[in-house]
Amino acid sequence: MSFTIVEQCPARLNRSELAVPGSNTTFLEKATKSTADVIFLDLEDAVAPDDKAQARKNIIEALNDLDWGGRTLSLRINGLDTHYMYRDVVDVLEKAGNHLDMIMIPKAGTAADIYAVDMLVTQVEAAKKLKKRIGFEIIIETALGMANIMEIAGASKRNESLHFGVADYAASTKARTTVIGGPNKDYHVLTDADKKGKREVHWGDMWHYPIAQTVVAARAHGLRPIDGPFGDFSDPDGYTAQAKRAATLGCEGKWAIHPSQITLANELFSPSKEEVTKAKRILEAMEKAQKEGKGAVALDGRLIDIASIKQAQVLVEKAEQIKGAK
Ligand code: GLV
Ligand code: MG
Q1: What are the pLDDT digits (tens) for 262-282?
Q2: In angstroms, rounded to a whole number, what is the distance separating the alpha carbons of residues 217 and 83?
């Protein structure tokens, strides 16, 4: 283990993250009953420029007047390159800051972007004596943001999660995509010819690199890595495939741009009963081994060691967190 201890951000369930446009009051009201772990109220790209001011008012009203039943709430502000952003922070925090848990910073490009928002939030928080400390969710969705991801991840004590924003990332890198967050058949390899001369097309995951980068930068700073949107909400199988590969790489959750994606995300990012049972057996076996002075033992014909304890603990803790939230 390194002498540098990675401090962990506050433990929040973040399997599903529902996007709700601030311009739509019906959607805001519906979201109060949502089963999403986190709900982000959007002032950015789901809101047209002419609707920004009204959306801000709607969100302030929704935060103050609706019963959110203790749900985790975030506010996606506009980018630092716009003239909307300072009001997004100041107006919403001043008027409804006690109902908000986090602010989501889109299109973060450098650590200084996070520093600037931190400065603003810190001032409003102190002036208004806000009861909750606002956390930051950061979307990595530009080539610049990806190039600076490590510094961004460590830029503020408020940081809680890094999100891979595939739609803007594709635009920024000029990647060729068909569906937001989906695969592209052109990203493939051809197998060598078999005896009959037949070759197979194997599709690859064109998002592997940015998601893996997001996971590493987030985990190295004690943050939650979260996979962003999947655009085709009439394709649950496509969503499931993308969510599973993100979970396999270490992501804790995925966005839901439609309510139908929430249940899928909650399920796909929860450890299964079998996984939890197995993890508990590993912990028991290792406890016994350690009492006997052994560093490694066999369980069901496979070697387990100290590293297995940590993985098992993560699983068991996650299962307990989910049970506690029900
Ligand atoms: C999210 O904001 C994205 O661009 O994918
Ligand atoms: Mg975006």
Answers
A1: 999 999 999 999 999 999 999
A2: 29
pTM for the model: 0.94
Mutation probe of ligand 1 site: the residue of 18, 44, 45, 232 with most atoms within 8 A of C-beta: 45
The secondary structure element, H or E, covering residue 162 is: strand 159-164
User: Which residues are within 8 A (CB) of 141 and not within 5 positions of it... i.e. 6 or more apart?
Assistant: 106, 107, 163, 164, 165, 166, 167, 168, 169, 172, 228
**Tell me, what's the pLDDT at 81?**
97
Residues 6+ apart with CB under 8 A from 59: 22, 28, 41, 43, 75, 92, 96
Return the CATH class of domain 16-270: alpha beta
* Six token digits for residue 305: 């060691």
Chain centroid offset of residue 275 CA:
22
What is the distance in A from the centroid of ligand 2 to the CA of 272?
31
40, 141, 163: which to mutate for ligand 1, most atoms within 8 A of CB? 141
pLDDT digits (tens, 9 = 90+) for 105-125: 999 999 999 999 999 999 999
Ligand nearest to the CA of 167: 1
Ligand 1: residue of 42, 43, 162, 166 to mutate (most ligand atoms within 8 A of CB) is 166
Domain boundaries along the sequence of the chain: 16-270, 274-325
In the structure, what pLDDT confidence band is assigned to residue 192 with cuts at 50, 70 and 90?
very high
Q: How far apart are CA 324 and CA 326, in angstroms?
A: 6
Which residues are near ligand 1 (CB < 6 Å)? 106, 139, 141, 165-168, 228-229
Residue showing tokens 């909750």: 132
